[in-house]
Amino acid sequence: MLTDKCSDDDLFKEILAIARHKVLDYDVDFLHDKADREVAAIASWLSHKIRRLEQGERPITFRKLRQILAHFDCDFENSSSRSKVCITRKINESGFLGFKTKRTLQTYIYYGGDGREVTRKDLNRLRADLHLDDEHGIDSATFYANEPASTGEFIQKFSKILKRLSGL
After folding, report:
1. What is the per-residue pLDDT across 39-97, written as a single tens digit (0 to 9) for each?
2. DSSP readout, the chain?
């Protein structure tokens, strides 16, 4: 996944260089291992621009969970049972014929107080129910540490570059 170390122009230029076999700063057409050198140069460039996807839940307090979910525009309501809280999130979806529709996702989790830890089981279910999980493009680093998002949001973030490239 690309990080903020990579601007749109940097990514565009790198992809063009790869496509044109101009990754290396010098002409090595006469060398038999040009492809190996290009792959090494691409790997070096990527190692400075990406991070690994993280999976798994981390122990956090309910207070921290509220802070995290605020970044994802989630709302909290007390349920009829005082021991549970209802968490909702509105998302945009493409509906019939590509029309955008709003959908409300919701989940209930046990609330033992702001200072108490949320169980991993509850976190796992909450993330799945609110589409804040790996399947929906939000890995653990994105969720817990507000790191740059993964693949789904990568496509959205770099859609201008991808359109520019497709026009070549």
Report:
1. 888 778 777 776 665 667 888 999 999 999 999 999 988 866 678 899 999 998 776 77
2. -B-TTS-HHHHHHHHHHHHTT--SSS--TT-TTHHHHHHHHHHHHHHTTB-----S---EEHHHHHHHHHTTTEEEEE-SSTTEEEEEEEEEEE-GGG-EEEEEEEEEEE---TTSEEPHHHHHHHHHHTT-SGGGT--HHHHHH-PPP-HHHHHHHTHHHHHHHHT-
